[in-house]
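Supplementary material to the annual report.
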Amino acid sequence: MPLDAVAQFAPAVVEFPFREGYVSSIIYVSLYVSLIAVTLSTLFSVPVALVMGFTDFPGKQFVQSVINTGMGFPSVVVGLLVLFAVSNQGPLGTFDLIFTKEAMIISQFVLATPPITAISLAALTGVNANVRDAAHVLGGTRIDVALVVIKEARYGIATAILAGFGRAISEVGSVLIVGGNITSADGISKTRTLTTAIQLEARQGRYETAMVLGAVLVTLVLTINAVVVRLGSDEVSGR
Amino acid sequence: MSKQRTDGREGTASRRAFLAAAATGVTGALAGCAGIGGGQEAGNQAGVSGETLTLTTTTSTYDTGLLDEIHTDFEEMYGVTVDAVAQGTGAALESARNGDSDVVMVHARGLEDEFMRNGYGVNRRDLMFNDFVIVGPESDPAGIQGMDSATEALTTIAEAEAPFVSRGDNSGTHTKELNLWEAAGTEPGGDWYQETGTGMGEALNVANQQDAYTLSDRGTFISQRSEIDLTILVQGPIEDGPEILANPYGIMAVNPGVHDNANYDLAMAYIGWITSPGTQEAISNYQVNGEQLFFPEAVSEDPDFQQYVPEGWSSNSTDG
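Predicted assembly:
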């Protein structure tokens, strides 16, 4: 796995002042939180984009502008809202979510959903109307037509998911507030991600190690993007 | 805050047994004698094992590495996990006020007293202390080196309009700084006075890059000294500086009468453990760059009764 390689390779290059397992555990938390959040976002966003793309309903313009605004929503504000929601006094207080990965997943879900929805919507509406008509003419049900359109728009949707993933994994403000940047006493991350670890290093003036962690993060995002693009092109050449 | 706490509630009998054991430990520690004898009695620990204690604390205790160093002992003793969230005194108290933590360790007595008076915190103990120092560039443009009055040094900096970096984040250090300005009778302001709104480490970096003065706790300064060119210009009481620069840390449990989800028994076990002679010794043995950062003050033959209540409180006073 390239991800394990990143975890093992990076500390070998630079002398990390970290304990064993620290870097791989924050990479794990980063990926765990972001991947689950993006998966949930995708399951929510693509159907919404389909509905938005193929039906008309009152208030559609408004929903559209909410989604577009959401793309630029500052992550610290999302963090504060999620904090109020999951705090002991908040509506979700009984679930004891504050300072957990689940709370971080909620805030990243809120952050990743608008870009995934908006870009998916653009991709879906960009599918040639002839394709849709053809699917109808061939006797397809609404579901069949939707599947055909999703298939045609898959690269656009993949781009949308990557954009959402990029936003989730590189975000620092909200996960710091709702996650609390916690590691156990033996240096294994509980809610510390690469971004909050970088923030912690920078806070203590250890800019070099902050930089190395930054390089790990960029490598990670780059790897995942490369894998997705590669899968896409394999599929094309395999047809 | 613990996920498993509901399980703990079901095991009422073992929970009571633990409570009794914890109370023994705490009482022992309060009396300043046997320490956490109860810790050993809770050796079969079915009641708390697997629970999580959420501690909100300041950046200075966390960033110096002290908590990671000592927490392993507590976690092994009770089979629990401590989630330490480093937030700065203001935010740490606010989290506790919202019921999002079980125990708070901070360093701003005024804010701690307010927290207790409002009913959010109980069973406060003096924990340890270090001191604040005024640091600045070696060139010392305002000429404060060796002054034995912190307020005079600040007044001199203000008069010289030499750059000064303030934390500006409602932390314990920021609170101390504002108290010092007030004691000096000077209202800081102007281009030379910058609020960074960051943790101590970052504030030291900002001061370092701008050749500015700043107020730092000694612990963070020592742990960062090798990275920066700033030097101590006014010493705190540990090095015979003025008493006003003392930096005492206190610890309190969140009042379970206000937040019934607070893991009060584990919080009290933690307070009993951290104020026990063994842990207090571990605190005094903790060194960074060959220097002791924190000086324990929980164990005493002659306990200061004011540590348990808001400063100046007495049963005769009006809010008694």
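Chain B touches chain A through 36 residues (CB under 8 Å).
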